[in-house]
Here is the input.
Amino acid sequence: MFAKITYVCQNETQNGIAGGKMHFIPRFFTAPKGSFFLFGPRGTGKSTWLKQAFPEALWINLLEPEQLRFYGAFPERLRETLTLNPKAQVVVIDEVQNVPELLPLVHAIIEEKRGIQFILTGSSARKLKRVGVDLLAGRAILKRMHPFFAAEIGVAFDLERALEFGLVPLIYQSEKPQQELRTYAALYLKEEVQAEGLVRRIGDFARFMEVMSFSHGGVLNTANISRECAVKRKTVENYLQILEDLMLAFTLPVFTKRAQRGLSAHDKFYFFDTGVFRSLRPKGPLDLGREIQGPALEGLVAQHLKAWVEEQEEKWDLSFWRTRSGLEVDFVVYGPKGFWAIEVKNGTTASPSDVKGLEAFREDYPESQQLLLYRGRAKTLQKGILCVPCAEFLANIRPDCKLIENVNNANS
Here is the structure.
């Protein structure tokens, strides 16, 4: 069972947005019993969820300047705080990456078996890479908070709105989502990249983020990106790592198990939320709608699949498949209880040419199930491959359900 922790949306209509009726949105998230890290980009609702799930927790907020100075100067003060709060059974350290020196102390207290559950949140893994996560491996589980699943929004889910503004709770629930999106990336540049001195030239990094919007849903070519940004290739590789450490983007590897053909050697790139992608992608008379809408739709599916994979108890892999001859399948989901190949098309009709990549994949991997997602309204078959409306597929993705099985059973 998933915890019924809710978010309040004060501007709801039939499509879940503008109006005056209050709307509660449960999250599909289960807290571990022991200590855990809870990572996720800004605005995904980590603090909101924790305050409702653990209302009696002792809270240390390292975004507050006073607490940042207090614990940053002497991390050992954590022990003093616990001594002064002997009844505290749950301790939340919010944005723990701001004082990574607390982590050895947390580790020591966990080892003392005092019965205290530590919950350590963060919106950046960069500072914790060498100190925190490695140190607490095996002592604290790593969990992630993602943008909304469409199924969490329920009948109010609107595909067009999701494609325009994304599903980050902070933005989705805003009365002015466009304005929130415009400031979202700028806030990261100012408070995470510039303030922490992650890059030497903040202007180059801002240009890089815009250039990367053209690679959303595409195969990475660092040489081309380097030329577009007028920076060295090594700099591009460092910038890409920063985006991943800040959880603003992720990459997918090529599916290579039992490969029978020559395959692409490069990863595929996505921003973590389609709304953030849309906010970074330049728009103008020379930018065709389909050039933006197609990657936006594919990215929306990608963020759902990534969230589904990471919420599974067993290990699952999310990848893509692309041959050197150009045959491609957007997503391959491979795990102990399923093997699915998924292609996403922005068209309102499904044609035989749309399933060409899936046919080739089926030929190489007859054990797999193939699925085409498109913008139409009805399920259909092409060359024996199930074609499902993308909105229906997204609305039925739940961490406690199999992907294609759930779609096959939906509305039947």
